[in-house]
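User: Here's a structure from my thesis project, written as structure tokens. My advisor, Dr. K., wants to see whether a designed sequence matches the one we expressed. Can you design one independently, without my sequence as a hint?
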């Protein structure tokens, strides 16, 4: 009798807890407050309605390239820049992501301005620019700016001598200071001789003025000869 009594009490307790749980769930279900959107409502009407009407001349003026070249970039970089939508937000389409990066690189506008123009957040603009540049360096740079082989160097030297009268020359090298905001750490190293903070970009062009080597990122206070010695140019030249 005692065992049966305890078993019945246990069954009653289990039914009681199940009923209480169901009542609690029903109570909070009726009082559930819809989730508020934490993403700001922005408009991308300019990108969706105005840009598709651009002529070829307008594409070159605003994006510094033709629409055909833009579409080529989209097709080549889609594999690395493409993302999927999540439960929290829709992803930025590849074409829009590339357009944001090109606008920043072409105009050097503030993130805030580009954010309003394309209807995205400022952090999204920054992310698009960085992701686009990384994809171009990893995918397109080795294809369009490879290190010239011996045959190519000979061809470049021949053209340089015939066009400019300089023998045994395959390229002209120079540096340029890219302005940056004052870094929090080691800011003195980035303060250049011109009186502002920068990183150095070193470029090499052939006799036709086409780039075939680029090196960027060293502090603006560094001497050009030091930049050259740290770039990828000296080692192949020595080996050759």
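Assistant: Designed independently from the structure alone:
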């Amino acid at each position: 009798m005692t065992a049966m009594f305890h078993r019945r009490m246990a069954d009653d307790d289990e039914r009681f807890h199940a009923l209480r749980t169901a009542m609690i769930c029903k109570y909070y279900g009726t009082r559930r407050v819809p989730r508020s959107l934490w993403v700001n409502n922005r408009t991308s009407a300019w990108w969706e309605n105005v840009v598709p009407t651009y002529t070829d001349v307008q594409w070159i003026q605003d994006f510094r390239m033709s629409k055909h070249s833009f579409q080529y970039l989209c097709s080549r970089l889609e594999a690395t820049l493409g993302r999927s939508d999540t439960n929290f937000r829709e992803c930025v389409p590849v074409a829009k992501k590339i357009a944001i990066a090109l606008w920043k690189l072409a105009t050097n506008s503030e993130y805030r301005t580009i954010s309003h123009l394309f209807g995205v957040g400022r952090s999204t603009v920054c992310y698009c620019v960085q992701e686009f540049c990384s994809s171009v360096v990893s995918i397109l740079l080795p294809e369009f700016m490879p290190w010239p082989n011996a045959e190519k160097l000979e061809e470049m030297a021949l053209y340089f001598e015939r066009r400019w009268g300089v023998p045994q020359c395959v390229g002209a090298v120079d540096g340029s200071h890219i302005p940056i905001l004052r870094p929090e750490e080691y800011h003195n190293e980035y303060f250049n001789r011109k009186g502002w903070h920068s990183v150095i970009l070193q470029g090499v062009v052939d006799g036709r003025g086409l780039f075939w080597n680029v090196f960027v990122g060293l502090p603006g206070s560094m001497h050009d000869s030091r930049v050259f010695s740290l770039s990828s140019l000296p080692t192949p030249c020595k080996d050759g």
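When you compare it with your expressed construct, this may help: The chain has a mean pLDDT of 85.
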